[in-house]
Amino acid sequence: LRDRALMRARVAENVLFALALLLFVGLAALELTGHRLFVVTGASMDPAIPKGALVIVKATSPSALRVGDVVTFERRGEAVTHRIAEIEDLRIGDLRDGRVFTTKGDANEVADPDRIEFPGEVGLVRGHLPLAGYAVAALHAYGSAPLLLGSAAVLATSATLVARSRLAPAPASA
Q: Which residues contact 70 (CB under 8 A, 6 or more apart)?
């Protein structure tokens, strides 16, 4: 019975460690490939991207954007994630001088009141994780998320090693 409990404890430890490590490696890989993460704090993109989701965005040139793309950008000091509803090419004579975008949340009745230009790059949403934004927001409330995730991985490793040394059967005496 003790051997079975020991085996279950080791399996649970290994699974938790693997999940913590996978999360840490995944977030590091996103950072290294130029992706950024944003927490969706409103319900304007429901049901496509629910409140509390974590969106994964990649910096993209405005010239690559199309109607229907979902972008994350800054408006009045806050990150906004909305769908591009309309694109207008600005021209002066025969020269193309830029693009102006109209955005709209999927759950909103009308488009955003301000048309927007993206002078540099804009965050194109590549995917989202429902509810994961709540966890990230909690981590940010207590400090730096990467530091906390790294610390969690180190603590999980340490706890696994300590638990294994304590649960290991005592050597047989002669």
A: 45, 48, 49, 55, 81, 82, 83, 84, 124, 125
Amino acid making up residue 47? P
Kindly give the interhelix angle for 145-167 and 132-141, rounded to the nearest 10 degrees: 100
What's the angle, vertex CA 64, arms to CA 29 and CA 43, rounded to 5?
A: 70
% of the chain exceeding 90 in pLDDT: 44
The three-class DSSP label of residue 37 is: strand
Which residues, other chains included, contact 139 with Cβ-Cβ below 8 Å and sequence gap of 6+?
145, 148, 149
84 burial type by CB count under 10 A (0-12 exposed, 13-18 middle, 19+ buried) = buried
| Choice between 1 and 146, residue whose per-residue pLDDT is larger | 1
Residue 62: asked if its preceding bond is cis (omega within 30°), the reply is no
Q: What amino acid is encoded at 86 in this protein?
A: E
- How many helices (H) and strands (E) in the chain? 3, 6
> Once rounded to an integer, what is the mean pLDDT over residues 77-92?
91
State the Cα torsion 41-45-50-56 to the nearest 10°. -80
DSSP SS3 for 13: helix
Query: What pLDDT digit, counting tens, does each position of 107-153 carry?
Result: 999 999 999 999 889 999 999 989 888 877 776 676 565 665 666 66
